[in-house]
Amino acid sequence: MTDALTAALEARGLRWPAPVEHLEVAASTNDRLKDKARAGAPEWSVVIADRQTDGRGRAGHPWISPAGNLFLSVLLRPVMPAAHVPVLPLAAGLATVEAVGESGVEARVKWPNDVVVDGRKLAGILVEGLSGAAGLQAAVVGIGLNVALQPASFPEDLRDRSTSLAAQTGRPCAVADAAAAVLARLRVWYDRLAREGPPCVLAAWRERSVAWWGRPVEARSGGSVLRGIVQGLDERGALLLDLEDGSRVAVVSGEVSELRLAETGSPR
Question: Which of 97, 165, 242, 251 makes a 20 to 30 Å CA pair with 114?
């Protein structure tokens, strides 16, 4: 895998600036890379696994991780204003949408960390920070992308809610090629975020998002449900909801376990 990924990156004119570790099996590529980060691994270090035994998404949700799909984590050491860092998951989502677009798949981002095709989940992003006495020391960007997985192989409760590159294109896609595309686009959006700040990411993210603007949604947090009309994103990438009492709230991604369209035409 490492040789194939290096070749795919070099075909794009990229010589990767940090070590790439390939594992046949990992509990979690994010956990593995966090350990390496604490040991001083350089920025842009990568861990990629053929499969995971304890993969997870945001809020600790399990991520199905069989072989033939992409399980990738990238180490960043952001040198940018702290206010820019919360936008990293949105930048990673954009990178993933553009990467799968190279295979002819027209995907959209769904706040805060999903990549979907016609409502079916294609990829998920999990960004985890490592902090020390001086503040944020590193961020690990984990991306799980369904490459070869066929809907029939999903658990029954996920078959209508998940998809893959193979299912969308009708042809095989090499995991190394998918990884190279994701890494190349992540570098572009990370550099733009550092150089131009959140507005460029937020504007592009909204253009590539699911068409939920002005529509009622339900945001689940713990045992409560927040219902409102989606109006936009604030400068941190938080979701702005207008509630039925006339107030506006900013919902931070870490507070939400699920976001979906409300079943009724207006918030209750």
Answer: 242
- Is 34 designated active site? no
Q: Are residues 164 and 244 in the same domain?
A: no
- Please determine, for residue 65, whether its predicted confidence score (pLDDT) is greater than 70: no
Statement to judge: residues 21 and 80 lie in one domain: yes
CATH at 200:
3.30.930.10
Residues 35 and 66 in one domain: yes
What pLDDT is stored for residue 151 in this prediction?
A: 72
- Looking at residue 164, its pLDDT comes to 93
The answer to whether residues 34 and 152 belong to one domain is yes
Selected catalytic residue, list 56, 120, 121, 185:
121
From 58, 110, 120, 185, active-site residue: 58
- Domain holding 248, by residue range, is 216-261
Identify whether 185 is part of a domain.
Answer: yes
What would the pLDDT profile of 116-175 be if each residue is shown by its tens digit?
Answer: 999 999 999 999 999 877 778 999 999 999 998 877 777 777 778 889 999 999 999 999
Measure CA 78 to chain center: 17
List the CATH number of the domain containing 241. 2.30.30.100
Residues 108, 208: contact at Cβ < 8 Å? yes
Tell me, yes or no, if 260 is annotated catalytic. yes
Mean of pLDDT over the chain? 89
